[in-house]
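Pipeline run #58 for the internal structure catalog. This entry was flagged by the ingest filter as a single-chain record with no existing model, so it goes straight to prediction. Upstream metadata was stripped on purpose; only the residue string is passed forward. Reviewer on rotation: M.T. Logging verbosity set to normal.
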Amino acid sequence: MRERSAHARVHRRGRVNFEQVNSAALAVLPSLLARWLPSGRIQGHEYVALNPKRADRRLGSFSINLRTGRWADFATGDKGGDPISLAAYLADISQVEAARRLATMLGLEVDDVA
């Protein structure tokens, strides 16, 4: 049996471990959101921001739950359930690519296969 490295593994049998990436992202979600959506602010257990994908002028309709990572734009109906889906939405990329980029940003190993 191989010994695990000090870094978290984000692949299992050649697949991205979404649960592990989302868990690591949730642990630092406020700082990720401040980087991705600098116009936002924390309001209770949510981060409210302007949606950069449309001509949003006021805070309130685009929010992310800081505990779960669930997010929604109530003006358009766009929504998702975790930080990876938010990263994919904001960057217009697939969730697999978003998970890989997020893992790299968080310092997780992306090329290890368990």
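catalog note: The chain has one domain: 11-105.
catalog note: Residues 95-105 form the longest helix (11 residues).
status: ready for reviewer M.T.
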